[in-house]
Structure formats: C-alpha cells, structure tokens
C-alpha cells in the first residue's frame, strides 16, 4: 500500500517544491539552484545506504518483536494513539541526542547544512544512520510491545509531516503553535545563531520541547541565519556526508588516552574547537 502511494507523494512533493521556488523568485528572496543540485546529490547517494539501513534495522526490530512477551494489538485504535505519543517522545530524544552526541551529530549535521530554508532542503539526510545507531532509541518501543509495522507507519507520518516545516512561505500559525511543530518553530531549529542553536526538537508536536525546556521563539532583533555554525559551506555531497566523521575520528586519533578519545567521539566540541 505504501509503495503504491509513493508516486502520489513524490508528485505532491515536486509540485510544492516548484511552487515554493516560484514564490521565492517572485518575492525576490532568491532560490539557490546550486544548493538544490547538492541536495539531489545527497538524495541519490543516500539510496543504497537507506536500503541497507532498512534491511538491517528491520531485521533487528522484527527479531525484537518475536522475543518480547509484550504485544499491543495492531488493529486497536488505542495502540495507534498511544504509539503516536510514544514515537513522538522517542523522536524528541533521538533528535536531541543527535545534536548533543557527536557520534550521532556526524550523521545529522548533513541535514543542517543548507543555507536556505526550503522544502527541498528537508531531503538533506546523512548516509550513515546505520552507523550512528540513532535507531536504538526506538528499539525499546518494540520491546515494550509496539508492533514494528505501527512504529514504521508512525515514523513515516512524522517525517512526512516535517517535509512541510522546511519553508519560509508560511508565517506564524497562532494557537496551533502551542501544540504542533510549525514552520516557524522549525525554521528556528535550523538556525546557526548562538541564541537559537539546539532548540525545538519536536516532530509533529512541540509539546515535549515545552515540557523539557528546549522551546525557543524567534526574536525580531536576532534574524535567523541558516547553515552549519563553525563550518565552511560546501556543495560537495561526499564532503557533506563524511566531513564530520573525518573530523571526529581525527580528533579521537589525536586524543591521548581512552578518556580523551571517548570525549572526542561522544561529546560535542567546545566553540573554540569548532572554529
């Protein structure tokens, strides 16, 4: 069913990307064609990695579902409601960890490399998700009884919803912003300004950012700057996919002693070390 709907989803994405590009040109905001080509390179390069990730992680999750004594009924509406909030919570912590643990940031940094906030930029995804092991955050949900099919469906919903958040065409949405993640919230998440960095981690909802104190709102005196802080911009997909890994592993190799090496692999560098 999901495979059959893929052309419709891809067609919708393409139409919205073209409409947004037209709006940006008409409003004199500009549209960076070179950045768009970089994104397409990242998408094409990610295909074999995504397939490998699906096979390996899918096998692990199916094995976990077979060994756990807990099983939520996939056909019951409560499974989907409870699963939705459980997946949202897991995604929040996965996303937060991806910004605070360097081993995970090495993959996630690719997503923050675009210097324009556009729908197409939402497709900038790292190729090393399997290696960065962020998927382990969701494994406890399967062991607690959430069917892998439900987990995958809810994660797909989460990620597809976020496609619509990567744009400057939509302004503030009033009361909806108390509950839902919106383009205004997510634009700030992509900011490289020190005042905004590492905020607004939510997927569909913004509730967990409110609960855990990571919510921030744009201030008029601090316009958003996009892109990676403390990194030179590049349009080379290979460099974007592996640069952070190379820098991190280099720092670990140079570290003296196991503690220094562990810090290089796990702790985010201080500002002066990123320069």
Feature tags:
275 residues; mainly alpha; 12 helices; 58% helix; 0% strand
Secondary structure: number of strands? 0
What is the ordering of alpha helices and beta strands? HHHHHHHHHHHH
Mean pLDDT: 95
- Report on the biggest sheet: none
N-C termini distance: 48 Å
Uncertain spans: none
Q: Work out the helicity level.
A: 55-70%
Structural class: mainly alpha
Shape: globular
Compute the CA-based radius of gyration: 19 Å
Task: Enumerate how many helices there are, as a single number.
Answer: 12
User: Per DSSP, what share of the residues sits in E-state strands of 2 or more residues?
Assistant: under 5%
Number of domains: 1
What features would you describe in this structure?
- The chain has 275 residues and is mainly α.
- The protein has one domain.
- It is 58% helix and 0% strand.
- The radius of gyration is 19 Å and the shape is globular.
Short description:
The protein has helices at 2-26, 33-67, 77-100, 102-108, 129-132, 139-143, 148-163, 183-189, 207-212, 237-254, 258-266, 271-274. The protein is mostly helical and 275 residues long.
Write the layout of secondary structure elements.
Layout: H1 2-26, H2 33-67, H3 77-100, H4 102-108, H5 129-132, H6 139-143, H7 148-163, H8 183-189, H9 207-212, H10 237-254, H11 258-266, H12 271-274
Helix pairs in contact: 2-10, 3-4, 3-7, 4-10, 10-11
């Amino acid at each position: 069913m999901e495979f059959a709907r893929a052309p419709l989803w891809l067609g919708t994405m393409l139409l919205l990307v073209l409409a947004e590009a037209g709006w940006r040109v008409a409003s004199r905001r500009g549209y960076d064609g070179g950045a768009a080509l970089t994104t397409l390179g990242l998408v094409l390069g990610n295909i074999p990695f995504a397939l490998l990730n699906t096979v390996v992680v899918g096998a692990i999750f199916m094995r976990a579902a077979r060994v756990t004594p807990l099983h939520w009924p996939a056909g019951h509406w409560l499974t989907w409601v409870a699963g939705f909030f459980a997946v949202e919570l897991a995604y929040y912590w996965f996303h937060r960890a991806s910004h605070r643990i360097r081993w995970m940031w090495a993959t996630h940094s690719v997503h923050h490399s675009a210097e324009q906030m556009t729908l197409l930029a939402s497709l900038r995804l790292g190729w090393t998700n399997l290696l960065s092991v962020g998927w382990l955050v969701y494994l406890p949900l399967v062991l607690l009884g959430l069917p892998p099919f439900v987990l995958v469906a809810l994660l797909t919903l989460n990620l597809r919803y976020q496609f619509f958040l990567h744009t400057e065409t939509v302004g503030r949405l009033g009361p909806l912003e108390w509950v839902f993640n919106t383009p205004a919230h997510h634009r700030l998440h992509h900011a490289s300004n020190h005042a905004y960095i590492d905020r607004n981690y939510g997927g569909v909802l913004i509730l967990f950012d409110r609960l855990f104190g990571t919510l921030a709102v744009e201030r008029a005196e601090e316009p958003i700057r996009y892109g990676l802080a403390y990194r030179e911009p590049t349009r080379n997909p290979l460099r974007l996919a592996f640069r952070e890994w190379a820098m991190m592993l280099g720092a670990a190799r140079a570290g003296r002693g196991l503690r220094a090496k562990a810090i290089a692999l796990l702790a985010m560098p201080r500002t002066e070390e990123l320069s």
